[in-house]
Amino acid sequence: MKKPISAFWLAAIALMFGSSAAIASEQHLRLIDRLDRPRDGYCIDIPGTPGNLRTDIPLFAHNCKAGLPPDAAVVFTPEGYIRFPGPDKCVTIAGVNQGALPGAAAMLADCGTSSMFFNAANFQRFELKDDGKLVLGNSNLCLAVGSASAATYSSADRWRTLFVDDCDTADARLSRWEFITP
User: Fold this and answer.
1) pLDDT tens, position by position, 155-166
2) Do the beta carbons of residue 131 and residue 97 sit within 8 Å?
């Protein structure tokens, strides 16, 4: 089993070789606890299929897939963005003005976008903590999955909701992540 590359080393590589070095490092963002998927675990995912990605609806956690398809490959940038290179969009937490609330959905939006009532810096930048929590910048909200799972189109596949939760009270089994290369 390959060891995950930490955010620290991704940032160090990017500083040494420029930001293009981080772009080359597509990975899965996988929940550390495998929950009811002991063989593959749960990874952040875009609903749809590689030819028909639904970037207009919330993201979810899906059992991790083999390889790095465009609906599951992410890059954790030195600036703290979780970017999907396929659609060239970043994980964005639903919020208004300066902040989000516990339970807010994770969705996709253009990286660094800003508009009235929405400043991407408040909703797109994350910090990976040593304990595996992905904390939304300038908040105490962590990326988490729901406690229940359900089958997708195939009974062999499962999905869970993806949202932010209060870092102090979030169940660690549902809110600790790692970047891994499949």
Assistant:
1) 899 999 999 999
2) no
